[in-house]
Write a structure and sequence with these properties.
The chain is about 45% helix and about 15% strand. The protein is α/β, with parallel strands linked by helices. Strands 3-2-1-4-5-6-7-8 form an eight-stranded mixed beta sheet, sandwiched between helices. It is globular. About 45% of the residues are buried.
C-alpha cells in the first residue's frame, strides 16, 4: 500500500532546533524536501542561484506550515562555479554556528558540451559534482562541530539511476568543448552518458567522503546518496531539451514523463535519509538508496541498493577526490593571481 503523506511525515524525526541546507531548493524535489523538513520543525535554507524564484518557492512552502516565522530562508548558491560554491559556504558559516543536514539536491541535465563552465569543465560535471564537492567540503568544519555538540549530522547527495548509463570519468574530455554539440537530436545520447557520469561522480564523492570522515573518527556524520525516483513535474533538463531539436523533443519527453512519480513521492527517499531516526539506528553509511514503488509508481518505502562494479571502484573514488581538490586549488590560484594583477 502506498505511504500516505501523514504516515511519511510521522516516520521522520522531530527536527526542532536543527538547521538544514537544501541545494536547488527553490523548485521540484528540492522544494518538496524543504517542505517536508520544515513540517518537521527544521529551519531550512533554500540554497539557490535565483533569488526571485526561491522566494516564490519559500512562500509556497511556508503556506504548508502552521507557524512559518523564519523557518525557511534563502541563501545564494551558484553551483556552476568553484568560487561561487566556495563563497556561498563561507558566507553560510558567518550566519550559523551549527549545520545538521545538507541535502545536495541541485543539478542540471541535458546540457550540450558546445561550451564549458566558467572554470573550464563540462557543465553537468561542474554543477552536479564539482560545485557540491566545493560547497560541502567547505562546510565540513561546521558539520563536524555539529556532530560533536549535537550527536550527529547528515549529508545526502541526490544521484540518479542514470549513473548506470555512465561509461566512467574521462578527465581529459571533461575539459574539452565540442563545437556544434547540441545542434542535432542525435547528440542526445552522449548527453545522457555525460549526465550519467556526473551522477556516478555523486556516488564516488559520497562514498569517499564517508570513508574519510569515519577514518578521522566522525562516525556520527552519515553520508549517503540516492536515486530519488523520476518525477515528470520538475524543471530538470528543460533548458537543455529546448536546444536538442526544439519543442517537439520537449513534448515527446514530457509525454513519456507523465506516468512517472509525483514530486512528493520522488522527494521521500532523500528526505528519509536526511531525517529518519532509522539512519543512525541502523548505522547507514556510504550507501546508495532508492524508492520501492508499486506497479502504479506510488511510493511504498525505500531501501539500500547494490551499486554497479564501476560505482564500487575504490581507486576511481579516490581519483575523483584528488581531481576535485586540484580543481579547487587551481581556482584559488587563478583568483589570487587575478587579484594581484
Amino acid at each position: 500500500m502506498a505511504v500516505a503523506e501523514r504516515e511519511f511525515l510521522e516516520s521522520l524525526d522531530d527536527l526542532s532546533g536543527k538547521i538544514a541546507i537544501v541545494t536547488g531548493g527553490a523548485a521540484g524535489l528540492g522544494l518538496q524536501t524543504t517542505k517536508y523538513l520544515a513540517q518537521r520543525n527544521c529551519i531550512v535554507y533554500v540554497a539557490s542561484r535565483n533569488r526571485e524564484k526561491s522566494l516564490r518557492g519559500i512562500a509556497e512552502a511556508e503556506a504548508t506550515l502552521s507557524d512559518p516565522h523564519g523557518a525557511i530562508k534563502f541563501h545564494h548558491l551558484d553551483l556552476s562555479t568553484v568560487d561561487g560554491a566556495r563563497w556561498s559556504a563561507e558566507e553560510f558559516k558567518k550566519l550559523e554556528d551549527r549545520l545538521d543536514i545538507v541535502v545536495a539536491n541541485g543539478g542540471v541535465s541535458m546540457l550540450a558540451q558546445n561550451e564549458l563552465s566558467q572554470d573550464g569543465y563540462e557543465r553537468m560535471f561542474a554543477t552536479n559534482h564539482l560545485g557540491h564537492f566545493v560547497f560541502v567540503t567547505t562546510l565540513l568544519g561546521l558539520l563536524k562541530q555539529t556532530s560533536r555538540l549535537y550527536s550527529e549530522a547528515r549529508i545526502v547527495v541526490t544521484s540518479s539511476i542514470g549513473y548506470r548509463t555512465a561509461t566512467g570519468l574521462d578527465y581529459s574530455t571533461l575539459t574539452q568543448a565540442r563545437p556544434g554539440d547540441g545542434e542535432s537530436v542525435w547528440d542526445l545520447v552522449p548527453s545522457f552518458v555525460r549526465y550519467g557520469n556526473s551522477k556516478l561522480a555523486n556516488i564516488y564523492f559520497t562514498i569517499e567522503l564517508d570513508r574519510r570522515l569515519r577514518e578521522d573518527g566522525y562516525t556520527s556524520i552519515y553520508c549517503n546518496s540516492c536515486h530519488p525516483g523520476i518525477a515528470g513535474a520538475t524543471n530538470l533538463g528543460r533548458e537543455g531539451i529546448k536546444v536538442w531539436g526544439g519543442a517537439w523533443v520537449e513534448s515527446v519527453i514530457g509525454l513519456l514523463m507523465k506516468p512517472l512519480n509525483t514530486v512528493e513521492d520522488a522527494s521521500k527517499t532523500q528526505t528519509y535519509l536526511a531525517a529518519s531516526a532509522q539512519i543512525p539506528q541502523q548505522d547507514v553509511h556510504g550507501q546508495y538508496w532508492a524508492p520501492v514503488l508499486s506497479w502504479t509508481q506510488r511510493y511504498l518505502g525505500c531501501r539500500a541498493e547494490q551499486l554497479t562494479e564501476l560505482a564500487r571502484d575504490e581507486e576511481k573514488q579516490k581519483q575523483l577526490w584528488s581531481f576535485s581538490e586540484r580543481a579547487m586549488e587551481t581556482s584559488r590560484d587563478t583568483r589570487i593571481k587575478r587579484e594581484h594583477d
